[in-house]
Amino acid sequence: MNAPVLRLTQARWFRWLATQTPPGRALASRFVAGERLDDAIEAARSLAKNEIRAMLDHLGENVTAPEQASEAVNAYVGALDRIREEGDLDCMVSVKLSQLGLDFSSELCISHMERVMAAASSAGSVVMIDMESSAYVDRTLAIFRDLRARHDRLGLCLQCSLRRTQGDIRALPAGSIIRLVKGAYLEPPEIALTSRREVDAAFARCFVRLIDLGHTVHVATHDPTLIEGTKRFVQRRGVPWSRLEFQMLFGVRRDLQRRLARSGYPVRVYIPYGAEWYPYLTRRLAERPANMWFFLSNLVRRGR
Ligand SMILES: Cc1cc2nc3c(=O)[nH]c(=O)nc-3n(C[C@H](O)[C@H](O)[C@H](O)COP(=O)(O)OP(=O)(O)OC[C@H]3O[C@@H](n4cnc5c(N)ncnc54)[C@H](O)[C@@H]3O)c2cc1C
Predict the structure, then answer these.
(1) Domain limits for position 2
(2) Rounded distance from Cα 199 to ligand 1 centre (Å)
(3) Are residues 206 and 251 in the same domain?
(4) 269 contacts: CB under 8 Å, gap ≥ 6
(5) Which of 88, 122, 152, 224 is spaced 20 to 30 A from 112 at the CA atom?
(6) How many domains does the chain have?
(7) Do 73 and 8 lie in a common domain?
(8) Ligand 1 atom 32, closest CA
(9) What is the pLDDT of residues 248-301, one digit of tens each?
(10) How far apart (Å, rounded) are the C-alpha atoms in residues 71 and 260?
(11) For residue 122, which phi and psi values (nearest 5 degrees)?
């Protein structure tokens, strides 16, 4: 996570450039399927042609009014109903609890999640909870545990870069579904590992621990070294692939997504859609400053 790039994306003038100019919208369209559910379903259908599974993320986070949280629930229920109607689409959904009212109260958020889980149950789909910045981790884990006692089709994302994560893994309910990621938020060094080497080593450690404890693991990374390490570990230990899958983001390393799927590995792509795409885009820019240079050079080229 590149702090200067992240800071730049918070500036009003930058947001305007990214959301109101053709190069900004072109960049967004690389990472976001579109603004409508139909766009996300079309992206999922297109991935399915290459044997790649899907996971829909209706974009939005940190809602500022309870009505917005209700609208987000309606959007997720609509998405799950559509997945049910599609019938043959292997498609999960992924939610952010701050989008479902966590900033107002845990009770409100849980009641919203109950509606989402009911729709997921009819669709035969799984709901994954994204992990947001470190301030949300305790409340997210508590809500996951509460809901997980009633719903099997629920999973959680954990960020290996947080110093606390090894401990959080020890306290997970048995047989959890866990998406393991490096972590996309800027955190202070007392909370998160900062060097790439430490983060990569933590990813490998968390992965092995999760497998040893019997959880299902979604290896959510585009890092070829970690992907190769996963394959080797699985082969050596004879772990069934039904307990694992690779996951990547829409528009990132499409070549690798296809190559893995063609070789028979389970691969799922996280498909963000919706009008509230700017915060998501800022994280994609900060993860890879080359994206920022690409955007800025396009802007300059158009301005000439
Ligand atoms: C399915 C999925 C769900 C996720 N959910 C969460 C979540 O809930 N909470 C959370 O904090 N984080 C989440 N993340 C993001 C994650 O934390 C990382 O920030 C992100 O995946 C980049 O790290 P990496 O593991 O790919 O490794 P990196 O070392 O960052 O990247 C490895 C390679 O991948 C490519 N790459 C990575 N990012 C980009 C990019 N933005 N643009 C272009 N190329 C890129 C580059 O080729 C790079 O060299 C999720 C990621 C995935 C794949």
Answers:
(1) 1-32+288-304
(2) 12
(3) yes
(4) 47, 52, 53, 54, 55, 247, 248, 249, 250, 257
(5) 88
(6) 2
(7) no
(8) 223
(9) 999 999 999 999 999 999 999 999 999 888 989 998 988 888 888 888 887 777
(10) 36
(11) -65, -35
Angle, to 10 degrees, between the axis of helix 3-10 and the axis of helix 278-287?
150
For 120-148, write each residue's pLDDT tens digit.
Answer: 999 999 999 999 999 999 999 999 999 99
Residue keyed to tokens 């430490």: 198
Whether residue 184 has its Cβ less than 6 Å from ligand 1? yes
The list of the chain residues with pLDDT below 70 reads: 302-304
Task: Report whether residue 182 contacts ligand 1, using a CB cutoff of 6 Å.
Answer: yes
* Residue 226 alpha carbon, nearest atom of ligand 1: 25
CA–centroid distance for 80 within its chain: 17
For residue 110, give the DSSP letter.
Answer: H
Of the candidates 20, 96, 106, the one whose C-alpha atom is nearest the C-alpha of residue 278 is: 20
CB of 126 closer than 8 Å to CB of 155:
yes
Helices marked H in the chain:
3-10, 12-20, 22-31, 37-48, 66-86, 106-123, 137-148, 165-170, 196-212, 224-237, 254-262, 278-287, 289-303
Which tokens is 207 given? 């992965």
